[in-house]
Amino acid sequence: MTPAKRPSRRDRIRAQLADLKLPGALEALDPILSSVDGGRFTAAEAIEKLLAAQIDLRNNRRLQAAMRASRLPAVKTLADFDFSFQPSIKREQIDSLHELSFLDRKENVVFLGPPGVGKTHLAISLAVATAERGRRIYYGALADLITSLEEAQAAGRLQQRLKVLTHPALLIVDEIGYVPISRTGATLFFQLVNRRYETGSTILTSNQSFEEWGRIFGDEVMATALIDRLLHHCHIVNIRGNSYRMRQHADVFNTLRNNPSTTEAETSP
Ligand SMILES: Nc1ncnc2c1ncn2[C@@H]1O[C@H](COP(=O)(O)OP(=O)(O)O)[C@@H](O)[C@H]1O
Ligand SMILES: [Mg+2]
Q: Ligand 1: which atom is nearest the Cα of residue 248?
């Protein structure tokens, strides 16, 4: 009678995981133990998988919290990136950036290339990896970051705003070059880059080469000073290739071409 009433080892482990507040491991326990019973996992593998389940859950929670705070527009990961579509990218360079030692060295990363080649995707996947490590990130398109600085300045809160944008271990400045920047905007952005210089990493993306940045920022001298600071400790990823978005359009186009009846139905009013 008594043995049936005593909690099983499995129940005791469950209680321990609950006591330690490890819900990820708790949820993974049963399938892992079944795999051990079935001879598919060794004891060491089972422990590894149990801990990994908890770490996954923790990383996921960190990411959710970071997503809310950082204004990341989407979650993109390295695993989702199709390197075969973009042969100009050196995979080793991107893999090595995802080890994130550039963050500790306060180095910057610049993704350059035409629209749709994956600049934002790779910038976000680095941000996601950073957030999963529990480090703070912040995302903004250049025009939005500048608007927020201008509004802060108008409200007499520029220093606080600069502080907020200097604090994260990683700042993403997306879409440099799509919208021209006013001279005041450029000066404010320059202040931000100056603040972050050698104190935190920044990832920038642009569809324009550095030679064009003078035009974008409306001032060659300031653009040169900006580039000088940004490039001092910097990894440059120059992507030359076709737009991934257009690839999808090409698929649709081919489907339509191979089914002329659909084409007619689609095009006739
Ligand atoms: N090589 C790729 N593999 C998978 N998805 C990609 C790839 N390149 C781009 N994409 C996807 O295509 C879309 C456009 O890419 P994005 O990174 O926004 O381009 P860019 O910032 O260079 O204009 C996004 O949804 C992105 O996730
Ligand atoms: Mg982009």
A: 12
